[in-house]
Amino acid sequence: MQVVNHVRTLIEKGTLQPGDKLPPERELARTLKVSRASLRTGIGYLAAMGVMKIRHGVGTFVADGPPDLGKASFSFMGALHGFQSWQMFEARIILESNLAALAAERGKEDHHAALAEEVAEMFAAVDNPSDYLIHDVLFHRIIAQASGNPILASIMETITSTMYDKRRKTVERAIDLRESAAMHREIYRALRGRKPAEARNIMEQHLRMAQAAQGMERPIERKAATTKEPASRSRKPAS
């Protein structure tokens, strides 16, 4: 949290602006008096939240968009109006499936290159759930950016930020993330091939599997699934 709080203070004071580059890792770790491993964890968290953007081989920058629309206020509204986890995930499925279709139509080569890099990072992190989740979140964020609609991307960012802590706890219990990584690769191929319908369908399938793995189905659907599936069947958390 020390890293997160330090960066937040710099942003609030205006010392760091969108697009600014952070100091080199060694220098920043020395300034904060933390290990480089702790620094990477903090930066990874900030990247997953959309505050930072990591450009491998270049550096870490303050993100210039899309912003989330206020995790705290959204969580407050959720508590006030009784938002349920399954409702959040249902909204995510509807939103991200259609963002994938838009990204297949509008995505540029730099988006495709960034997605390919995140897929490679996910496969490399299948034995490290925390790192895997960071690249998972970044993959979905790139798709939102590739959609060309910053309003939809911001709404998605808000939902993603609100759900992040629950997803982090779930992914830590993952047994095998290779299936999830493979589905992300299929989504990437549909986007690169400019196949909107296929991208939408694979994204929806992927998210429904993740919804079931995280126990976020609509209650009546969850009850039906429990009745049909053997209790011993394991699930693989994803996205």
UniProtKB/TrEMBL annotation:
Segments of skewed composition (Basic and acidic residues): 218-232
What UniProt keywords are attached to this protein's entry? DNA-binding, Transcription, Transcription regulation
Q: Where is this region: Disordered?
A: 214-239
Q: From the record, what ranges are coiled-coil?
A: none
A Pfam entry, by short name: FCD
Q: Its Gene Ontology molecular function terms?
A: DNA binding; DNA-binding transcription factor activity
- Stated name of the protein: Putative transcriptional regulator (GntR family)
Organism the protein comes from: mine drainage metagenome
